[in-house]
Amino acid sequence: MTAPAVPPGCPVRPTDTHGLTPLSATTGPDPARVHQELRETWGSVARVELEPGVPAWLVLGYRELLTVTRQEKTYSRDARNWRDLAEGAVPPGSALLPMMAHRDNVIGYDGPEHQRLRRPLVDGMAGTDQRRLRRSVEAVCAGLLESFTGRGTADLVGEYARVVPLLAIGGLFGLDRSEGHELLRSLAALFSGPNASRAGSRRFEDILTGILRERRAAPESDLTSAFLAHPDLRGDSEILQSMVVMISAGNETTTSWIANTLRLMLTDRRFRGRLRGGRLGEDEALDEVLWQDPPMANFPARYALHDTELGGRAIRRGDCLVLGLAAANADPAVRPADPYDMLGNRAHLAFSAGPHACPARVPARLITRTAVEIALRGLPDVTLDVPAAELPWRPSPWTHCPASLPVRFTPLPAAAAAPGGGP
């Protein structure tokens, strides 16, 4: 750890990033070690570097994170309050901007405007037919398993965990499978470099605009029709942005949840034994993953609206604060040492907290639980095809998620992948 020791309460010059730990170090192979070293050096709020020359505060403490997420009049979600961005310290081509720049949607506002834009999302999730969604996810999962069960090998991230959520969420909006796969390709392009990103963004919005037009002409029982009818959404632009937020955010986080649950099954003998032996229910297993590896390890961001103090640190107006969801979950001030003491405990911060907490936790759990159930049933003797220490990790400062899960299993006939099938 190279972060300089600074006495609690001592202000840090906002432009000084010399020796600071890169935020990306907290999502590498051993994030717990990095979190521990940051706590030992800084306490519950640590100074880190987002990218060269761009500092931020990483909120490591559970109670401090609740303070930041619940006090909108002190900590804003609106990136237009970010001093380093406003003063040009963040370059126009920064890789931070896709996640952190202001967006004219529910993510980019606080207060009444945020509440107005959030209501359609909350109402849409409340109106989701859970049985219908589960049947849809089962069919998606079975189809994906069928594509590789006869082969005896697969990548359970690229061929499964990354595909299931987008097809399931796309289905909620009325997209068929071919449109869902095309949406997946456009999302991949979004993160493939500037030229491909622009083309991917255009295609992504084109697909959603198409379904928007179809549902305006002929409404159905899907989220697109619900958004069109919702009185709080004003015009196609707001409807489209709401769709983009739901699909992109839901896909990324649910992918990570599925991937990390499967990874634990393949690499953690204790976790696998408790789940397969019936000592750990499926929902308890999913909650253990949320405590240990939340879908977003770090979440951007809040921006101080005035000078304040947090965790013994002097926070200046315009400072950026990153929500360390994984670190806060592991805060020794609230986390018992014995994992058995966590069974049934959903006080984790995997979905954040406060007014901007995730509104889609119920469908996300349903999609994840179904995907894990069908993978375990359809691949009963699945094993990791590389040493656990050699698993690659996604190069992201935001998610602690394997880039791939190469596995091997006994080849099975296609029918074994269907819901209710298998040995």
TrEMBL record:
Region Disordered, annotated ranges: 1-31
InterPro entries assigned to the protein according to its UniProt record, in alphabetical order: Cyt_P450_B, Cyt_P450_CS, Cyt_P450_sf
Protein name per the record: Cytochrome P450
Organism: Streptomyces lycii
Start-end of Pro residues biased regions: 1-11
Family as reported in the entry's similarity comment: Belongs to the cytochrome P450 family.
